[in-house]
């Protein structure tokens, strides 16, 4: 059964971006440190990344994430050679060069989840960000699992993930893995 899993890297003090965000540094000053675990965690980390990505069939992100990532994504989208469909929640058109069938603009989070679930073909849907999209999806009961990649850094400023939640959300821990550059903790959302 397809599940919607929110995956995100976060500083130990709860930020998913560092402070001082600019167009050149959309994750803030030294914010890319949040993703180093994904690219250089050694054999155990590489095996974890493979497990994490092997059952994803589609991806959802918000407009800010899309706009910030354009310099880093090509016509294949965020999953590169896998060419998984990306559903961008937005009210504005996407870049003309992103009309390759990978990128899809959708107006609401429920529509994005519905279309991504269909496109995933029994695989999981990865909700990749940002914080606002996550909070809205969580409030709408659309998130099945939360996987946090807690990176050993204190930013002190930036974008907080859990800044405003509409209500108390109960979680059940399902797994934890320690790698050299992050602690990976997964929770099932109790509905």
From TrEMBL:
<protein>
    <submittedName>
        <fullName>Dihydrofolate reductase</fullName>
    </submittedName>
</protein>
<keyword id="KW-0614">Plasmid</keyword>
<dbReference type="GO" id="GO:0008703">
    <property type="term" value="F:5-amino-6-(5-phosphoribosylamino)uracil reductase activity"/>
</dbReference>
<dbReference type="InterPro" id="IPR024072">
    <property type="entry name" value="DHFR-like_dom_sf"/>
</dbReference>
<dbReference type="Pfam" id="PF01872">
    <property type="entry name" value="RibD_C"/>
</dbReference>
<dbReference type="InterPro" id="IPR050765">
    <property type="entry name" value="Riboflavin_Biosynth_HTPR"/>
</dbReference>
<feature type="domain" description="Bacterial bifunctional deaminase-reductase C-terminal">
    <location>
        <begin position="3"/>
        <end position="176"/>
    </location>
</feature>
<dbReference type="GO" id="GO:0009231">
    <property type="term" value="P:riboflavin biosynthetic process"/>
</dbReference>
<dbReference type="InterPro" id="IPR002734">
    <property type="entry name" value="RibDG_C"/>
</dbReference>
């Amino acid at each position: 059964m397809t599940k919607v899993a929110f995956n995100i890297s976060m500083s130990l003090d709860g930020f998913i971006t560092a402070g001082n965000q600019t167009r050149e540094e959309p994750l803030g000053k030294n914010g890319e440190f949040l993703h180093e675990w994904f690219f250089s965690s050694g054999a155990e980390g590489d095996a974890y990344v493979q497990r994490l990505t092997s059952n994803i069939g589609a991806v959802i992100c918000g407009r800010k994430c899309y706009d910030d990532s354009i310099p880093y994504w090509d016509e294949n989208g965020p999953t590169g050679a896998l060419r998984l469909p990306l559903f961008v929640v937005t009210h504005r058109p996407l870049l003309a060069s992103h009309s390759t069938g990978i990128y899809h603009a959708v107006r609401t989070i429920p529509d994005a989840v519905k279309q991504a679930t269909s496109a995933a073909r029994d695989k999981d849907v990865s909700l990749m960000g940002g914080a606002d999209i996550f909070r809205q999806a969580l409030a709408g009961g659309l998130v099945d699992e939360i996987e946090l990649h807690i990176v050993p850094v204190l930013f002190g400023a930036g974008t907080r993930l859990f800044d405003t939640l509409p209500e108390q959300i109960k979680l059940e821990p399902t797994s934890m893995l320690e790698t050299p550059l992050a602690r990976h903790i997964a929770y099932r959302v109790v509905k």
